[in-house]
Amino acid sequence: MQEAMINRAKQLLADGTVSRVIGWKRGEFAYDITPAVFESAEELESDFVFDDFTAANVSKYLVKESAKEGKVLVFLKPCDTYSLNQLTKEHRVNRDNVYVIGIPGGPKLDIEKIKAKGITGILSVKNENYTLKIETLYGEETMPFSEAILDKCASCKSKKHVTYDELIGEDGDILESNRFDMVEQLENMTAEERYNFWREQLSKCIRCNACRNVCPACTCEKCVFDNPSSGVENKAASDSFEENMFHIIRAFHVAGRCTDCGECSRVCPQNIPLHLLNRKFIKDINELYGEYQAGEDTTSKAPLNRYTFYDCEASIVHERGVE
Amino acid sequence: MLRISLDKIDSLFAAISEKQALYIPTDRADGAAEYKRYEAGMKLSDKLNTVRSAKDFFFPQTENLVEFKMEGKKIEVNDIRQECEDFVIFGVRACDARSFTILDKVYLVEPVDSFYKNRRDHGTVVTMACTRPAETCFCQTFGIDPTAPEGDCAVWSDGSYYYFKANSDKGQAFVDSIASLLEEGDTAELDKTIAKTKEIMGRLPLSKLSTENFGGDKLNEYFNSDKWGELSESCLGCGTCTFVCPTCQCYDIKDFNTGDGIKRFRCWDSCMYSDFTKMAHGNPRLTQLERFRQRFMHKLVYFPANNNGEFGCVGCGRCLSKCPISMNIVKVMKALEEK
Amino acid sequence: MQVNENKEFQPLIVAFCCNWCSYAGADLSGTNRLNYPSNVKIIRVPCSCRVNPMFILRAFQRGADGVILCGCHPGDCHYTSGNYFTRRRMTLLFSMLDFLGIERDRTRVEWVSAAEGAKFAATMNEFTEAVKKLGPNRRLEDLRCRKQ
């Protein structure tokens, strides 16, 4: 797959269709892959990588890259295409300046899950028939591929590319996923249990803003939390209230626009399941205002931008779940 | 050397925590390690390191400095400083232990930061030698020996005993306070463990990384390097690297209006943020390239220039494993070295 | 003089009222000499949809024990559709607060027209009672703002 991608990118660079390529660059180890822009065949040859660790969603880089001169080639996994569509809809990406090659999606691996097994000194990770052979400084280790899958891939919602100019490999289908299971579990807890669950999780937050900055839906030029004139700017959560506020507002601001790509939880250095907040909004929207998948198309109105006379009242919250 | 059997660790912790606050790295439900105040039954983590560094003990993420109360035209200023309680941090790795030396160079020079000094005076750092370094470790690059950690008291483990050696008066007082639990023993097994760790250190993927091309005199060479564009291209501008870093020491001072007074506090700041260095006229660092460059130039050039060649990095590897896009100081050093 | 030792909890209620209906409704309840608790502090907004979710959270931060948002009845918005957007936003926000374990009786949306002075007073009485039962807001409180 990696070979085919490099070759096609070289062709498109050579015939002048595109002037730059967005992809993933090899790192120091087996897993530390950085999104990067490639401008020449040599760079692609030496550094371009596509493997089990290329999980990063590169759509957000198109905000910057599509505003530049010349067309940019981007390789998008199915989930990443939803993000691009959403950005196109919001006029944040100039789609005419982007050449999309759809590539097969995950499941991708989570190095944290491998390390959590106590495996350290990792030198290489090979997938042999869905068993990971991990070469380490302390000898060879093995673990099942399925136990190292990223959470966002474990509850994959779609293998279908919703936008592309060409495909390498087959297109897939929208999947029946179990992505709302954990949200439902929480809904069925008592308010006190939920409160304790979220206090434990959100108190880990170090306010690094990685969840916000990686989010393809968070593309404000200046975030209200970074703006000293906003009155709510805060650099560190000085109180548990500020932890709650930041995460509620972050999730609320992308409600109806979040494609559920799962990047927020993937990048969290403290392993906070932030995607659950976003999924709660998605689940509510689906249940109260009809099924809606952000990024599925570039024309539909977002659920918070439309209304009907017969919408439920806010008091519906009292009628649902456990108090 | 004084030692205690591994299975007596609980009674050791109980004895320490009886006299003063004790913090140990322990595993959270999600598997990651963090420092927590010791309570009976808590298990010492066997992870190499905690997600957050040990700098939190001396330089917490947020800290109240002073309070103001206003009544009409009168302003009342309240000094809220309090003497810190005595505490012990157990299980600090060699890299984090060195980071305190680096923070000292910032906070204990004139004018001395009394908040930092207060904590430093009351804290005893008990370090733990490494036996299973990870691929992300590169403390050797900065002359740190993880098999002989600094700190007030160093602890080694050979799998059946913990060995203790005091490095300072505070450390000696700590060893004395637990002397009744310790026994003399030979170190043959321990020497073998240390030799084995040293052998692994030589095989670490980053063992060859060197600082010889960096230092205070490299400003002109690197500041205008054309590598910065490429390196910072995918930087998200988040503060993960800064906040997990044991040596990052920048903070911002802010006022919080509580409704009937002002609480002035300081909190960690990150040079990766868009409002870092923002002044009345605007911000001199307009793009992520400049912010990104600042962070690495500070660690590799500016800091050694001001501190007799000491680098602002200890090679703990936290940024290597936590950066959302896996860009880090090692990649920066390697890229800058390529001519 | 005897100091009244009544320690009964008195909740602080913030009511966001739209300028065109609910604020006028509050006015009417006043001119009709209807009682509603003095714990209710009204903040007038041009339209209920002016209320950003952040306003609700900030009210709690600053010491509110309950927040109620009042606007024109659906179909009657002075700006045609503002309250429809409010309805969706607040439904989602309140659901999220509930998801985080914040007591659901601390927040409410109520439609009060300019002619419904009686409804305004009744709503405020009822809401204040409900919040009083819950006690002080602790789960969404900023400790720095707690009155000593």
From TrEMBL, chain C:
Claim: Iron-sulfur is one of the keywords in the record: yes
Iron-sulfur found in the keyword field: yes
Alphabetized UniProt keyword annotations: Iron, Iron-sulfur, Metal-binding, Oxidoreductase
Residue span(s) of domain F420-non-reducing hydrogenase iron-sulfur subunit D: 13-135
Molecular-function GO term, any one: oxidoreductase activity
Top-level taxon in the UniProt lineage: Bacteria
Protein name as it appears in the record: Coenzyme F420-reducing hydrogenase, delta subunit
Species of the source: Ruminococcus flavefaciens
